[in-house]
Specification:
The two termini are about 30 Å apart. The protein is built from 11 helices and 2 strands, in the order H-H-H-H-H-E-H-H-H-H-E-H-H. It has one domain. It is mostly helical and about 300 residues long. The protein has a two-stranded antiparallel sheet with strand order 1-2. The radius of gyration is 20 Å and the shape is globular. The relative contact order is 0.17.
Length: about 300
Amino acid sequence: MNALLAPNNHLIALARQGKRLPHLVLLLIVSIIATFVMQILGIIPALLVLQLLGAGDNSALASAARGAILLIGSTSLIFAFIWAWLRWFDQRPYWTLGLEPRGALGKYARGLLVGLLMFAAAVGLAAAFGYVAYEQGDPQQQGLAALGGVLLITLGWIVQGASEEVLCRGWLLPSIGGRYRPWLGVFISALVFALLHSLNPGLSVLAMVNLFLFGIFAALYALYEGGLWGIFALHSVWNWAQGNLFGFEVSGTTPEGGSLLNLQETGPDLITGGRFGPEGGLVVSAVLLGGILVLVALARRMSRSPVPAES
């Protein structure tokens, strides 16, 4: 664990390349206000585009196109905001968020695999207790008929997942960790991440706890890799698998684009998540806690590894 939360962690060190690091209070105020302002500014043109396109048909492909436009429109401007902040306030390059190109493809691929396995583990755990069943829905929105939509909506999830990670794990976490303590950066960035989802429909106390746990896990994952490429992929595929692979609600919202499988929760809301989707249930709590423990164990092993002698 010490290796992850060390002041010289690579992700933290990157943030110190700027001329200044913001005060904690300023970071909290700006991050929350900017997120909602950028979302509103981005959603307006997205809605105008949808208005011009018209209602469209009920196919998964048309649904995915609408969903991707909304996801990209509502989240993409956060990249521009953070770019402007880094340039004029922190005065450091954008890549210091943890976007170094070396090894990016491998880390992204690993993140995809880890995220897919983690969410599949949550579904498998619920199924082991008999709390998952197949649901017959609109034939245009599930199975092979939905394949085009399931693939197209991936573009929206890629942008949406990365935007939240740039804000919380690329900017907040190392900025706070660099000025104060890394553990504080982990805690505050996870708390902000949870609060940014506080208006989602179907939210419960356990859902907020799980959002916080996901924020802790994502922060430790980014610190372990020293960058954002892996957690970009993990976050995006987590949402995609939840909604478009298995057919569940994603943080209280019904995903567009259809689903390859159309599963439904049949057990107690406390375990399965109810209206919020699996992220509001104990099965996801167990997977996230397990993921955190694995990262802690990996960090301990890393800290015990001997440092090779210089020649």
